[in-house]
């Protein structure tokens, strides 16, 4: 038998606290009156005088308040917390969450009574876009008076996004009072840099100068091109240049045909004609492609200054600048130019050479010996 084991068990089996003998047994307050009653009216008890009864009553009262250490004069009722979420440790955060949920519930009920919810799928696509930018987690930490973790921030923004969708419905339907109430709540959580953030990807429209010229900038790979475009002026026909004597006196039997105005435009690249600067047909086709797609071939004179890169990059940069210039002169061509991906810079770049390879992806021929 293991002695250490038996000793350890004997130590563990001992009571953790020793019972101390008290001079007087504990009597609960609820039983104090019973003890006092049994003392007076027990069988065979002697009849007590008034002084003895008063002494027993005082001793009973002393026992009631001796153990509890209760002071009746200084007793004050415990104050209730201000928020029902006081014991969560983040009362401010959960109070705001509850307020947002209540606002969403009230707004949903209002829109349902106005027969604006639920919306069909096609109606959602017709709503007025109202992008917004919420405060950062650091800014919301100050507002909510608690550390805004990723999960808490996502929960708050999810509620705000739902409220913003209801704002779009109310604004599109024309209910200004409902939209104002929703907007007053959303504005509390919107970032102060909203306007600058939303205008970050918006470009300024190209302005035409006093001569009707447009100035645009195009890029492709490492090439950059500056492009000026101006409408071609119609040729002025002289009065007697295309009229002979027979036609003048009506001696000709052939009906006179109206002259055909053929507009002749010029495309100069670095002060050289396009055919001279780009001898390859594929480069020239790349440049005139925006003009063909928009249907304005021969309508504008184009002057460009291009720098950097090779022929492919330079022709692509010129085409990018021409497409932007066409959109400046004729905004109605923007849809077809965007569909052809001509208004957007081609993001493709030359892939770098890798170590151990002949080029970017080409490998050396494997030789056995």
Beta percentage is 5-15%
Largest sheet: 5 strands, mixed
Approximately how much helix is present in the residues?
A: 40-55%
The end-to-end span amounts to 79 Å
Count of domains: 3
Structure class: alpha+beta
Q: What gross morphology would you assign?
A: elongated
Low-confidence stretches: 1-17
Radius of gyration: 46 Å
The CATH topology of the largest domain is given as Ribosomal Protein S5, domain 2
CATH class descriptor name of the largest domain: Alpha Beta
Strand line-up in the sheet with most strands: 1-2-5-3-4
What order do the SSEs take from the amino end to the carboxyl end, as H and E?
Answer: HHHHHHHHHEEHEEHHEHH
Describe this structure in words.
This protein is an alpha+beta fold. It has three domains: 33-71, no CATH class; 95-198, no CATH class; 206-234 and 262-348, Ribosomal Protein S5, domain 2, CATH 3.30.230.10. Helices cover 44% and strands 8% of the residues. It has helices at residues 3-12, 32-41, 50-66, 91-113, 121-125, 137-144, 150-173, 176-189, 194-198, 245-249, 274-277, 281-294, 311-329, 334-339; strands spanning 214-220, 223-231, 267-269, 272-273, 300-307. Strands 1-2-5-3-4 form a five-stranded mixed β-sheet. The longest helix is centred in the middle third of the chain and has 24 residues, at 150-173. The protein is elongated. The model is unreliable at 1-17 (pLDDT under 50). It comes from Lentinula lateritia. Belongs to the universal ribosomal protein uS9 family. This is SSU ribosomal protein S9P. InterPro entries: Ribosomal_Su5_D2-typ_SF (IPR020568), Ribosomal_uS9 (IPR000754), Ribosomal_uS9_CS (IPR020574), Ribsml_uS5_D2-typ_fold_subgr (IPR014721).
